[in-house]
Amino acid sequence: MKKVVLAFVACLSLWGTEIDKETGLKVAKGLEEVKANCTVCHSANFIIQSKLNRDEWLTTIRWMQDTQGLWEFDPQTEDIILTYLSTQYPQSNTSRRRPQLDKSLLPPK
Ligand code: HEC
Prior knowledge:
This protein is mostly helical. Helices cover 50% and strands 0% of the residues. The chain is built from 5 helices and no strands.
């Protein structure tokens, strides 16, 4: 059993997403901006556990800005952060819930 686990871990590291040791976030362009702005009030686990598309990430940021005291970003920083989030923590179709059917496949209302 131990060997299986080791092999699995080895595979994971071969696939090669480098992880920032401090936060657990994936190392990619934008990491510094995200670390500086998004791990101040809460741990990065909120980010790691979220799988959102770009619009939903933006909605989450706006919600924190409206209700949780998150500051405004200049458009460039916001773009870098959103690109990082939606690329590294994208919406996932791997959950057991299947993707929604296309409207054309649904019965007419
Ligand atoms: C000013 C403080 C603050 C900063 C900075 C901040 N957040 Fe948050 N965030 C919060 C609070 C407060 C919550 C709600 C915590 C709770 O539910 O207990 C939250 C919740 C979240 C959640 C979970 C939302 C949900 O659906 O439950 C995510 C994801 C998140 N933040 C991402 C981010 C990202 C990405 C950034 C950087 C752009 C960021 N946060 C920066 C205060 C902050």
